[in-house]
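Q: I'm teaching a short session on how sequence maps to structure, and I want students to see two examples side by side rather than one. Could you give me a first protein with its sequence written out and its structure tokens following it? Keep the formatting plain so it prints cleanly on a handout.
A: Of course. Example one:
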Amino acid sequence: MRKLGSLCFILFSSVFAVSHAQPSSPATADSRQQKPIFVDVVVTDATHKPVADLEPFDFSVLDENHPQKLMGFRRTDGKAGSKIDPPVEVIVVLDAVNLPYQWVTRLRLELAKFLRADGGRLAQPTSIYLFGSDGLHVQPAPSRDGNALAALVDQAGPMRARDITGGVYALEEQYKDSYKAITGIAENLSHRPGRKVLIWMGPGWPLLSERFFIQTNVSRNTYYHQLAVLQNKLREARATIYCVYGTAGVTNTLYEKFLDPVREIKKMEIGNMGLQVFALHTGGRVLGPSNDVKGLLDDCVAEIGEYYTLALVPPPATKADEYHDLKVQVNRPGVTVKTETGYYNEPID
């Protein structure tokens, strides 16, 4: 266990690099060939338990409905890890930017309850990120010591929530700060080994669905490129997002209008970059609303088990940020497949 004195929060201002292994794929002397992509897949049975005995021939992958050959395959126990991949890491983001102070205080208490359960013995290595009005504060290294992490959250002092009464300009600032935060998290995690479960405590940032937020084709192009970059970076980070709502009776379903993938710049809306949209597109879930936030956190962690990592070489892209629908199918009845729903392909340089 890591002692409390060895844990601290740092303001997230830089990205560190750690090399990590990927599933084996054929080497090639032609550097201009498409680079392989790696997809983590969770398969569960009718009782929601992970299926752990699948082989490569049980899987089929469709890219834009065209069958793709698997170039690599790996099966990993997400709880124990392996010689190649560490155990699945849990990252919990407590969002004070997009919630009023009273809600943040309650979520903080529920987070501490989750961390201190079972005597503070966490099943997975866990990191806590605090996202407040002064930026994103991160824990330097994951820990299984829930008591130490809970004390760390307590010692962080009051979290300053954003003033949510500042009108449309304040909403736009919330969105920009939130996008910067999640992009930084994805970039950071992309340099760390293994699969991650990213639990975002809060309803996420404003969807900015009002028309005046996107006024020109130039702005649509900017947002479209940001969408492609972030979605691909989350895949490279091997991050599955879970969005946890913390207040019963407070339901936000507006994001459901933006779940269809964006293939054309002219179809781009800022709502397509909502937290819940990214959660579902990474194979995660939107949980809640519920007053039992600790129970929701337990549900997220309970889904960690055996998973599969598939490697495939995407077809050549004909344009920048070209969306590709991705379907992973398993040749076994009665199972559910959870994985990312697509990616943005790029032409060879």
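Q: Perfect. Now a second example for contrast.
A: Example two:
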Amino acid sequence: MNSRNEIADLIYTNLLKKKEDLKHQFEQSKNTIGYFFIDELLPETFAKELYKVFPTTSNTVLRKNIREHKYVGYQMNTYHSLLEETLFAFQNERIVELVSKICNLKEIHSDEFLYAGGLSLMQKGNYLNPHLDNSHDKDRQRWRVLNLLYYVTPGWKLENGGNLELWPYGVKNEPITIESKFNRLIVMVTHQKSWHSVSTVNVDKTRTCISNYYFSNIPVLVSDDFHVTTFRGRPNEKTKNTILRFDSFLRNSVRKLFKKGIRENPHQYKK
């Protein structure tokens, strides 16, 4: 199993098999931050092979600042072909359509440029502060509406950290933690209120993730407006929160003046 079509067949089959349960998951959460997750998405041996061929952090891009500390990879032709085939399997039209139906969203499109998507690696001490994803694609033509996160670190445990956190009632309240479990796919909606983060990794292991975004011609919420990726501090980070608010204000102001920013965002796959 090496081609994206073969991998897509397996993903589609497993999603379809559990479609009603996944729809129920999403329905239960759609009024805040809609999400669902599915375990054992791909054969265990294949998922372990993906982990084995993940690049080391030295072959990825370090993102380290007050907002985040992680490693990303998006120029997929520089990595093992199995990673690219798997990543783009999630962009198969049948899967995009099925996920759209599960989430009851319309006019959904995949993104061949992997704008802000691709590979993610997090090691001990790495984190991602509460944030809202950038509202649009790289050309500001479509709205970002779904985030697909597929985790492939064998034996990952909740206590390891590096887990997805959803803040359905804002960043002043307690988050919902969803474990970055091996061979688990998490799909979450992205809109003006979908604050989420990744908890600090506590162990000397690397948490690996394959991520995709889906876009739409229409926003999830009528109230959605354009915004850059917007960060906040955690409830106990008052000073950091003040700094991040000002940082977000400045970056958003620049983007309103310069539609595509002062410089092109390098986080995209240039084929």
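Q: What should students look for in example two?
A: Point them to this: The chain has six helices and 13 strands. Also worth mentioning: The first strand starts at residue 35 and ends at 38.
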